[in-house]
Structures are given as structure tokens and as C-alpha cells.
Amino acid sequence: MMSKTLPLMVMTSALALAACSGKSKDNVASPSTNPALAVPNGPPAVANPTVGGVPMMATRTIVDNASAAPNLSTLVAAVKAADLVGTLSGPGPFTVFAPTNDAFGRLAPGMVDTLLKPENKASLTKVLTYHVVPGVITADDLRQRIAAGGGTATLTTVEGDPITATLVGAVITLTDVNGNKSYVETADVRQSNGVVHVVNGVIVPKLS
């Protein structure tokens, strides 16, 4: 029993510590010093935002578009390892907070490789589905929910644990159940089966 439990305990601690370090300016850019993180007010533009310099097609699925974005390649590899391609290619709709390669790179050295191992599929699935919320929630929807909630909005993820959304200036900020933060870099990337918001940090649910 110990041989199976210890790696999960170590991985859980490492993920939590790595995500926690994301609160420092050295790991996750502060919204006050990075204007690119700001989400403009008003309805989304007609044209879809680009991700990683690549046009995103509103007629394509979440998986198809993510596969075309060079800065989401680690996320795509993780989705494949967790056997979530079929789910995220299905009708949904889903709202996905998509961590960039840089976001995964801020985890402890070797952590991504560890998560991608078959024996850690359950933990990887929990982490990934914690970044997914049922339905379509645009940046404007989030701002309205935050305002209605007196400054906070609680989102129920597919994984089950909640995410808290707030605004830091104009920047939509996500806080996980461990108190770690991630900021939206690119909002309202429309998909045929939902919407993607690209984020600069990996948020972590409770792993046990």
C-alpha cells in the first residue's frame, strides 16, 4: 500500500508547492506589470483571437484548435494521455481554461513527465478536468458573475472542486482550492463546442 500511496502524496505536494510558487512575479506575470493579460470590456470581437500566433477557427473543436497552437502542445499531450480527446471533441459545450506550455513549465522539474505516466492517469485527469467548466462562459459572463457576487464568482468544474474567479484590475483571475492563482492571458477563443480562455498558470484541485 505504501508503495502506491507515497508517489501520489509526493506528487500532490509537489503540484501544490509548484502552483503556490506561481503567485510570485518570477513565475506568473503580475497583471499590474503585464497589460497583455487585461481583458477588454464589451462584447467579444467578431474575429477569433489567435493563440500562439495561429488563427483559431470557431468551426473547429477545442482539441483541433489546441492541437494547432504551438504554445498549447503540453496541454494537448496531457489531454491525449488522459484519454480526454473524445470528451473535449464532443458536443459539450465546455469552457476550458487552457494552461500554456510556460504554465506547465513552472511546475517542479520532471512533474509533467510524471503526470503523463500511465500509472498517474487518474491524477492527471483530475488536474485537467479541474480546468473545465460545463457550458459556455465568456469573459463578459465572468465579469457579470463577479460583479453580481460582490467581487467573486464560484465556478463548478467538471472535476468537482470549485474555482474562484475575481478581477485584479481588468484581469480575470482564477484561484484554486489551494489558494493558488492563474491569470487569463487570452479570453473568448470561440470553438464549435465551447470557449477557451488561455491562462498562464496550472491550477490544482484537491488530490488524495
UniProtKB/TrEMBL annotation:
The FAS1 domain covers which part of the protein?
Answer: 59-203
**Protein name as it appears in the record:** Putative surface protein with fasciclin (FAS1) repeats
Q: Please give the GO cellular component terms listed in this UniProt entry.
A: extracellular space
The protein's superkingdom reads Bacteria
Leader sequence residues: 1-18
Which keywords label this protein? Signal
Q: Does the keyword Signal apply?
A: yes
Q: Which organism is it from?
A: Sphingomonas aurantiaca
Keyword Signal in record: yes
UniProt-listed PANTHER family: FI19380P1, PERIOSTIN-RELATED
Q: Which InterPro entries match?
A: Adhesion/Biosynth-related, FAS1_dom_sf, FAS1_domain
Q: Name one Pfam family in it.
A: Fasciclin
